[in-house]
From TrEMBL, chains A, B:
It comes from Oceanobacillus jeddahense. One of its GO terms (molecular function) is monooxygenase activity. Its cofactor is FMN. Pfam families: NMO. Keywords: Detoxification, Flavoprotein, FMN, Monooxygenase, Oxidoreductase. This is Probable nitronate monooxygenase. It comes from the Bacteria. The lineage of its organism: Bacteria, Bacillati, Bacillota, Bacilli, Bacillales.
Length: 361, 361
């Protein structure tokens, strides 16, 4: 009963997108295996230098002939006063001390926003390398960028956490839009009223049908989907396909730290929480000592990406020591359904299970 | 493909429960029309005096020969210091003044917990009147009460907001359990760690399949479901049926205040929020001046039902004046899907729409 525009447009077999998780999770093997299995692999390139992006794109092309995609972060003006950086450092220095890291006191905002400087170069790489699909988080690109990408026949996917954001994505010319429910792990991908997005996040069961009623481009469901049940449910709610992060994160091919994978495989559904203490942007992760210690400071921490740069060394050192207490252990609310399996078996099982509901995939 | 134990057990045609909304919303017409249309009508009797309950039960029996149910609140020890009552009154008195109500200063906890005193009498009425189905919010009845109700062949339905609560409901002998996602309007029906239940609420897309994996009694999906899409999606996720509040609240037969109905029919998906300022218990309602003014006081307000009694006159006066600013405008996150329609057309449309997904209802 579905007239699936999404698979036709993306030239893939199954409407299953591997979420573009940034920070080394989306290895070339993860991306290529997803595409080889009939889904859409995505590079989480938000934090990547252009040269690094190009290298990974080339590597993936050697591993698959199927379409794959890449995700970028939309830059926006940073609101981070010297005072907020000072206060963040005051809160972070005791944690740095625990990890035997030196205290930090650099207050120059410019030093913290590297990730925002390279956006236009990233876009250039996407076009030069002819990556067939490009998705965006934290905003919508400018008219000029959209026009140029479209001229290169690149399919564009936006991200929305509210109905209005979905409508804005369609108006701007996105070919489809990911509808991200409150269940989703990692960063909120939307772009409205950040101060509220932790408390006002909308569950996918509510958000998806309401968004679908207001757009005509394909909707891709995201948040809490882990298996054929969530896949079939998303199609009933009006999505044409799904995007899954946590389900791919614990796969064999994912580059997530083993401590991160193990943490997800061992928690219950109520052990994640929204925090902006890691990056300055609200994101859902497993409650750990870092989140708890920083909770009282959430209100005045500097914006993304300043806070992200401030916590970088802490996260890196903790990871090197296999210490989950100070790592950003992003996870959605369906961790009990996570499995350590190959990408191939994840996708095959999803399709088999979803087909049992008599829904045309 | 569904072997629907739920409809068999409840002796109803469609696995659609009208949520037992307390406070006058579940009129006899609403309950009886739901049952007459093939669903299960429920009296929200949490705040009702036993005599009032008996009267409504008798009235409903005159309006339908079909099964219907009733919902009760499980009493538990109240934590409400004189200091917290004093602080609540300090926060509420300026609002009372706006409504030309006298300030309050009664600090005697005992005067505020009427609703907890009558539970055993309420149970007695349920048995004497042979109400076929009884559901519970805020906890699980004692072994003795469960045994007695079962001896009277009354079908018991629990409420869970986490997987563990669902498991506890099954262990205690509930015949089925409502799985309430974060999208749901009104009170959180669960019973664990109240201090966290606003921030840790789990979206239905995540909660439902995880709960279903851990119980063998039928699961009833609740939270954000408004139409055949949510109905079909819930069945895909493993529920045997659905319970809907907001969708019934705006129906013609509902006793909700017209200002309440109009508010729901006019808001977007992101205009509700969790608050405990009305009742002392976390609940989702439309953001209004009362919620915003009380936000800073949430931390130290007395427990349910003390805070509920404290705000009673404010809510009542605001309602009498058609003033939405100080009423508890409970609503789920799917308000954009709410319609002013009859119960019969709500249920018929849901069933017709859900059947289009080729899922056996």
């Amino acid at each position: 009963m579905l007239n699936n525009e999404m698979t036709g447009c993306l030239k893939i077999e199954y409407p299953i997108i591997q979420a573009p998780m940034a920070g080394g999770i989306t290895t070339s093997a993860l991306v290529a295996e997803t595409s080889n299995a009939g889904g859409l692999g995505m590079i989480g390139a938000g934090y990547m230098a252009p040269a690094q992006m190009r290298e990974q794109i080339k590597e993936i092309k050697r591993l698959t002939t199927k379409p794959f995609g890449i995700n970028l972060f939309i830059p926006k003006p940073v609101q981070a006063s010297k005072n907020s950086i000072k206060a963040a450092n005051q809160a972070l220095n005791p944690i740095r001390q625990k990890l035997q890291l030196p205290p930090q006191d650099n207050l120059d905002v410019a030093d913290y926003i590297e990730v925002f400087k390279t956006f236009m170069e990233q876009i250039k790489v996407v076009m030069e390398e002819k990556v067939p699909i490009c998705s965006f988080a934290f905003g919508i690109p400018s008219k000029e960028v959209i026009a140029e990408l479209k001229q290169h026949n690149i399919i564009l996917i936006g991200t929305a956490t509210t109905v209005n954001e979905a409508v804005e994505n369609e108006k701007a010319g996105m070919d489809m839009v990911v509808i991200q429910g409150s269940e989703a792990g990692g960063h909120r991908g939307g772009f409205h009223k950040q101060e509220q997005e932790n408390v006002d996040s909308i569950g996918l069961m509510s958000l998806l049908p309401q968004a679908v009623d207001h757009i005509s481009i394909p909707a891709v469901a995201a948040g809490g989907i882990m298996d054929g049940r969530g896949f079939a449910a998303s199609l009933c709610l009006g999505a044409q396909g799904v995007q899954m992060g946590t389900a791919f994160l614990t796969c064999t091919e994912s580059g997530a730290h083993k401590v991160h994978k193990e943490a997800i495989l061992n928690i219950a559904e109520d052990q994640t929480v929204f925090t902006r203490a890691f990056s300055g942007k609200w994101a859902r992760g497993i409650k750990n000592p870092f989140i708890l210690e920083m909770q009282e400071h959430e209100g005045y921490l500097p914006d993304f990406p300043v806070q992200n740069t401030l916590t970088q060394e802490i996260r890196k050192t903790a990871a090197a020591e296999n210490n989950p207490d100070f790592m950003s252990l992003w996870s959605g609310q369906s961790a009990r359904l996570a499995k350590n399996q190959t990408v191939k078996s994840l996708i095959e099982n999803m399709v088999t299970e979803a087909k049992q509901f008599n829904i045309n995939i």
